[in-house]
Task: inverse folding
């Protein structure tokens, strides 16, 4: 079905010009009797967009009406009235999710909007408890950059850290998940150990543990750090040396990612691998052709989670602790804090967007081909319509001219100097 | 044919079979070492185990190190020969740390602060997740987009207005700022829990629900009698993660519980915050002591004891729920489709 369609299209492409003209002429001949009035064309369009209900479709006598002039199927939108059961189910769905709706409105949307509003105001409380808001414009945006002098350096080093840490964590956790997914003895014990970081890593306890275990380092990195610091700009060198000296810490952060990958790996149908093996596929090929494509969405999820998690972590991003500090003893008022937080959030969202784009599952070749053929079809149809319009216009012009001629003849005027083109 | 001949033939056959079985050729060696298509080879197996054990050690070693340090006495800490195993078990560190942290009260506060929102989280997130998974309605797409947005959105953005809101309502200093948002699916990382619950409930075949419906089960009954029992794993995962994240939350607790104007309203001091206070006190002490090595080393042992104390309940719960947790990962519901 599909191939014939595309073949047709290719043929069309080759003989496009001639065929289009042919059809257009044909079309014009068809529509010329109706085309006397300009409004007819519009009516034609309206008819195309009409929505049919199921009954109407069933009662239609000739099924040919579902095809347009070129024998193509018409796009018909079938409007189905929602049944009672469906309606009731939808209502129950609203009831189940009602708490979340309220939560979104009251906590999420309200907070985000207020946070954005606060950035333009000086918000403080009067002694009597009244809230006072002075409009300050973009004052606080300026102020943040004035006051937080190392903001840009920190952001630069943060981006370097993310750039290096996200692929590291994602690849490492994928490897570990694949090892854990093998047929091995003591699976349970290994998993218990591997998910242990999930329990500990989120807390301030982590700071303690890293401070204690920083002494266990495989290589002494101070010389490398010094070299890097002397060669590279501070923000770059800071990020790079941080990654090198905290590889253990970063691997510790991959507990949740291992979990997600493991769950995804267990979902892959084993018969796929069997089929591949029968066809002579090696393990390496199986990984690239089966495992990786299947867990691609999880790659995106993990990368996003890693970015979000790392950007919220005080050990990775010093800005977070600075924001917390500002929030707790704010001499500058709420305006300053929310501006700071908003700027940081905007930057994090940019990071998230970049990662989402980088890990976005791409459409495969087949879908691409379909899209291309659809585009081509649309284009040819557009050209056809253009031609038709032009032809109809010409027809109308001609008609008018003829009428004018007739009128003039009726009026008895001489036509010798006429410049109508025939 | 005579009898002995037959016997001979049988014997030779047997011998042949034996010979076929035993020869240890190069091929067989290769098979054992490198494996066939269905079976891992010995070398590969060894490699896998070595990697797993090494990384496992990497994950375990900091905890073990902290634990062993917490048991060291002052002389052990000062002795550079002793690195991992203390010469004698010194439980004094734990005693002192527990007294310094007011451990009994802190544990009680921590349990209140993390257990109540966790239970609410399990209930609310499973209900919301079920609503998303089972029913179709017009606003579903929009709401789901909000779930994902709140997963991505940095907390700091919404913290200021929320803090202000709670402060104005006079809720700071109590546990209410943790309970109220949780009731509406807006607790700490609640969007992740909703996603987990959603992916579990989506796996329940629709035919099962329809059958129940035909047999006369209402929507509530379907939820409680079919959906919940078949997704215990999800509830365990949500419980564990939620408990851990509430337990480890030190910033929000310090913001909502302490930052009220009256100093007397320090009703709750969770363990993690106690640990922070404990550490800052010891930092001050060691900085004031200056170059005196012994005091700072004495701190280390106690510090690690306090750290272990702070995460001990988490470890306990993890090892209790570990089986269900790992199994629920095995059932592979956590990620959805």
Result:
């Amino acid at each position: 079905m599909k191939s014939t369609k595309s073949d047709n299209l290719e043929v069309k492409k080759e003989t496009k010009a001639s065929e289009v003209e042919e059809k257009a002429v044909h079309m014009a001949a068809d529509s010329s009797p109706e085309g006397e009035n300009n409004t007819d064309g519009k009516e034609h369009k309206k008819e195309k967009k009409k929505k049919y209900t199921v009954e109407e479709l069933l009662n239609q006598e000739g099924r040919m009406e579902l095809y347009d002039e070129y024998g193509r199927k018409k796009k018909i939108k079938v409007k189905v009235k929602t049944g009672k059961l469906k309606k009731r189910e939808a209502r129950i769905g609203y009831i189940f999710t009602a708490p979340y709706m309220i939560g979104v409105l009251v906590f999420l949307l309200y907070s985000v909007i207020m946070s954005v509003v606060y950035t333009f105001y000086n918000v403080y409380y009067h002694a009597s408890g009244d809230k006072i808001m002075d409009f300050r414009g973009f004052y606080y945006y300026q102020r943040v950059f004035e006051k937080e002098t190392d903001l840009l350096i920190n952001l630069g080093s943060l981006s370097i850290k993310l750039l290096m840490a996200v692929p590291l964590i994602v690849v490492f956790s994928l490897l570990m998940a694949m090892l854990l997914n093998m047929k091995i003895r003591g699976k349970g014990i290994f998993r218990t150990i591997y998910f242990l970081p999930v329990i500990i890593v989120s807390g301030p306890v982590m700071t303690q543990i890293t401070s204690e275990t920083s002494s266990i380092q495989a290589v002494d990195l101070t010389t490398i750090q010094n070299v890097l610091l002397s060669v590279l700009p501070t923000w770059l060198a800071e990020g790079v040396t941080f990654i090198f000296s905290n590889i253990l810490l970063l691997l510790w952060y991959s507990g949740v990612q291992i979990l997600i990958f493991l769950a995804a790996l267990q979902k892959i149908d084993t018969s796929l691998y069997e089929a591949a093996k029968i066809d002579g596929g090696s393990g390496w090929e199986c990984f690239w052709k089966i495992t990786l494509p299947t867990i691609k969405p999880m790659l995106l999820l993990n990368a996003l989670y890693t970015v979000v998690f790392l950007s919220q972590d005080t050990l990775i991003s010093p800005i977070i602790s600075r924001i917390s500090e500002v929030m707790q003893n704010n001499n500058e008022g709420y305006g300053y804090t929310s501006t700071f937080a908003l700027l940081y959030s905007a930057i994090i969202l940019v990071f998230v967007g970049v990662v989402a784009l980088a890990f976005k599952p791409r459409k495969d070749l087949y879908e691409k081909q379909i899209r291309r053929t659809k585009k081509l079809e649309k284009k040819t149809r557009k050209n056809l319509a253009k031609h038709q319009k032009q032809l109809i216009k010409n027809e109308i012009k001609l008609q008018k001219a003829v009428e004018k001629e007739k009128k003039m003849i009726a009026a008895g005027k001489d036509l010798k100097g006429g410049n109508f083109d025939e | 044919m005579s009898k002995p001949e037959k016997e001979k033939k049988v014997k030779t056959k047997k011998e042949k079979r034996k010979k076929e079985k035993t020869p240890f050729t190069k091929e067989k060696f290769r098979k054992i070492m490198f494996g066939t298509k269905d079976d891992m080879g010995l070398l590969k197996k060894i490699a896998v185990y070595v990697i797993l054990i090494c990384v496992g050690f990497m994950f375990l070693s900091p905890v073990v190190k902290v634990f062993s340090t917490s048991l060291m006495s002052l002389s052990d800490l000062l002795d550079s020969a002793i690195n991992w195993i203390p010469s004698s078990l010194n439980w004094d560190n734990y005693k002192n740390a527990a007294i310094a942290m007011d451990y009994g009260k802190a544990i009680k506060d921590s349990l209140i602060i993390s257990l109540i929102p966790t239970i609410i989280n399990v209930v609310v997130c499973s209900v919301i997740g079920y609503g998303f998974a089972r029913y179709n309605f017009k606003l579903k797409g929009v709401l789901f987009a909000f779930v994902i947005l709140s997963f991505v959105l940095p907390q700091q953005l919404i913290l200021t207005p929320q803090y202000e809101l709670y402060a104005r309502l006079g809720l700071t200093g109590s546990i209410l700022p943790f309970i109220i948002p949780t009731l509406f699916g807006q607790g700490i990382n609640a969007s992740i829990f909703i996603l987990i619950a959603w992916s579990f409930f989506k796996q329940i075949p629709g035919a099962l629900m329809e059958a129940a419906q035909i047999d006369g089960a209402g929507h509530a009954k379907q939820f409680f009698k079919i959906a919940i029992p078949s997704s215990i794993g999800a509830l365990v995962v949500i419980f564990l993660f939620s408990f851990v994240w509430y337990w480890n939350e030190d910033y929000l607790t310090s913001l909502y519980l302490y930052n009220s104007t009256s100093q007397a309203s320090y009703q709750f001091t969770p363990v993690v915050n106690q640990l922070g206070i404990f550490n800052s006190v010891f930092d001050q002490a060691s900085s004031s002591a200056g170059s005196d090595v012994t005091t700072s080393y004495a701190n280390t042992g106690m510090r690690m004891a306090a750290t272990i104390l702070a995460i001990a309940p988490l470890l306990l719960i993890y090892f209790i729920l570990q089986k269900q947790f790992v199994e629920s990962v095995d059932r592979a519901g956590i990620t959805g489709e």
Summary: The longest strand of chain A covers residues 121-125.
